[in-house]
DNA sequence: TATTGTTATACTCTATAACTATA
DNA sequence: TATAGTTATAGAGTATAACAATA
């Protein structure tokens, strides 16, 4: 035969539906769909928002490596994102006094104000999710997701 | 003040740690880290693999719109990915007889063979996850993720 | 020499709009 | 006119290597 007919039965692999990476992607897409309009309204990409969020959550200034680890961004991507956020005066960059190689990043007043302004909308969306999904189930889900990460990072 | 000191306490928003989109991203990254070497060994991007996986799982040929919906890829991205996979002779493209606008995509013998060859490695990785995480908990997680998608897609 | 971070480069994906072909 | 899909275009992220500055 020339063309090709799909024959799932011939492949010993779980169904697309039960694929864990796909299930995580679907869930993330469904969730982000609720938050995306909020970010678009402020001209923020998801990645930029992750950086701002990490800085807002930190009790202290963060260096580039710490932000990269928390946001799952690679150095080169993060470098450009930080340039962008600095140009928009949302982020402040200083050199660590004890190690001139290391940068210290923090939110500016404007950055803090932006995150603080978005927070109510974000929390309203969360309330909507908790309302529909149940807050106990949401807690359970977060716990399972944390445990999955631990299971993945265990020694081989 | 000039610089900026982060003050999480001033922002009424849940911690970065308890952010659902971040938890889903972390879990997905941790999971994909286990599968990525397998894809890299076959020169497949995650998106290309999602397309092959969708075609392998289908009982019949799929059109571009169906693949886009299942893989969360946009038309233009998918168009290029399909060109790439067609060039590599992994995917076969035909025109639907009843509607010449519609394409019918399926795996070629080589595509089927590729997916079939990767399947054992994929299943071994799954077995590892189930072993560490527990298969009942994995089932529970998949169920919660499905329900979350339903909760997100409900009428506003 | 090792580390922190940026720059260089090539590729891929995202996103929106415009377009072609078909219905 | 509406729909399926591709092409155009601009922007942003991914990934690896090379590099500069500092330790």
Strand order of the largest sheet of chain A: 1-2
**Largest interface here, residues on each chain?**
A-B, 77 and 78 residues
Largest sheet of chain A: 2 strands, antiparallel
The span between the termini of chain A is 43 Å
**Structural Rg of chain A:** 20 Å
| Helix/strand order of chain A, N-terminal first | HHHHEEHH
| SSE class of chain A | mainly alpha
Number of helices of chain A: 6
Stretches with pLDDT under 50, minimum 5 residues of chain A = 1-6
Kindly estimate the percentage of residues of chain A that lie in beta strands according to DSSP.
5-15%
Query: Mean pLDDT of chain A, as a whole number?
Result: 90
Portion of residues within helices of chain A: 55-70%
The oligomeric state of the chains shown is homodimer
Compute the number of strand runs of chain A: 2
Instruction: Please state the overall shape of chain A, judged from the principal axes of the Cα atoms.
Output: globular
Short description:
By secondary structure, chain A is mainly alpha-helical.
List keywords for this structure.
disordered N terminus, 2 strands, homodimer, DNA-binding, mainly alpha, 156 residues
Topology record:
The structure is a homodimer of 156-residue chains.
Chain A: H1 20-40, H2 46-57, H3 64-71, H4 75-87, E1 91-95, E2 103-107, H5 109-133, H6 135-153
Chain B binds a DNA duplex (23 and 23 nucleotides) through helix 4.
Can you describe what's shown?
The structure is a homodimer of 156-residue chains. By secondary structure, chain A is mainly alpha-helical. Helix content of chain A is 63%, strand content 6%. Chain A has six helices and two strands, in the order ααααββαα. A two-stranded antiparallel ribbon of chain A has the order 1-2. In chain A, helix 1 packs across helix 5 and helix 2 packs across helix 3. The termini of chain A are far apart. The N terminus of chain A is likely disordered. Chains A and B meet through helix 1, helix 2, helix 5 and helix 6 of A and helix 1, helix 2, helix 5 and helix 6 of B.
